[in-house]
Amino acid sequence: MRITRREFLRLATISAAALGLTPSDFLKLGEALASSTSPPVIWLQGAACTGCSIALLNVTNPTIDDVLLNTISLKYQTNLSAAAGELAIGSIIDSTTAADGQFILCIEGGIPTAAGGNYSVIGDRDGANWTILSAVNELGPRAKYVLAVGTCAVYGGVVKPSTYTGIKTVKEILGGKTRNPIINLPTCPAHPESVVGTMITLLTKGLPDLDQDNRPTDYFTTTVHNNCPRRFTHMVSQIGTYGCYRMIGCQGPSTIINCPLIKWNNGVNWCVEADMLCIGCASPNFPRGPFYYSGMYMGSMDGEMGGIGYHIGGNSSTVGHAHAGRSGSMGIGHSLR
Ligand code: SF4
Ligand code: SF4
What we know:
Blueprint: H1 5-14, H2 16-19, H3 23-34, E1 41-45, H4 51-58, H5 64-71, E2 74-77, H6 85-98, E3 104-108, E4 111-112, E5 121-125, E6 128-131, H7 132-139, E7 145-149, H8 151-155, E8 167-168, H9 170-174, E9 183-185, H10 192-204, H11 224-227, H12 259-262, H13 316-323, H14 331-336
Parallel strand pairs: 1-2, 1-3, 3-7, 7-9
Antiparallel strand pairs: 4-8, 5-6
Helix pairs in contact: 1-3
Bound molecules: iron/sulfur cluster (2 copies).
Residues 187, 224, 255, 257, 259, 270-271, 278-282 line the site of one iron/sulfur cluster.
């Protein structure tokens, strides 16, 4: 199904309040979408679990892949591109050359630097591996906007601890080399609304307001805890039960993002309302663990959690309930918490 411009505008309307879009912004969005020169989007995938792409592609109706393919002019996405080999590489080269300085570059995952970057290769280019490292170095400075999509791209996330691949973040590779500040969109997986909403803002207003860590303030203003509906409820000692999970390790007080407001899975639910605690997946130090403790944990939450581990207090039915809270990456970790 090809999504129409009208349908996309309807989708944008849903996010209007969160984005602060005015009627004149919508006019600009309509003009941008009507333009045959709407900026191409190139989506590269480095060391990642593909969860950011899956979360993005699964959660809305009309589907985001329709939006990206037919409306925002997505020219390359690893999981969606029908083209392979030279054709796929050619589409990246051709579209970025034609729109030099105007395209949007989304980077999902960490960027391997060891072994010449050969742990993550897009394909064959002129008889040699075209690595993500090389592509990011080549395309990043030429893009109008660069989006670091997901916690692995922003902070290293779950792939950073690898001692073999030499993972670097987008900022570590491109910091100071881009035309505009790199836009950071952490969470694991990247929240689809933050990705699409930021693209809408880029089309209508240009660079969104960013905080000190280059995160759009539309989504990253205060902690999960400050918006949590369980903030003033009694503390509980077991996941899967109603109450506040602070004393069993909830990271909501130190994690900045508005999950309680925008929720997940097209606004269906989010971690705490699914009776699980926040594991801080938008934080620079994610993943740190144990993600939670069974029974009351009376020590300080900071600096005392070493090594990833799971201490499950719920039964299989509460675990299943929790998993219904969102979709995407961290399948094992999130299905357990
Ligand atoms: S569950 Fe977590 S985020 Fe919610 S009030 Fe308790 S500590 Fe804060
Ligand atoms: S509430 Fe859930 S999705 Fe949001 S930052 Fe915490 S762990 Fe991540």
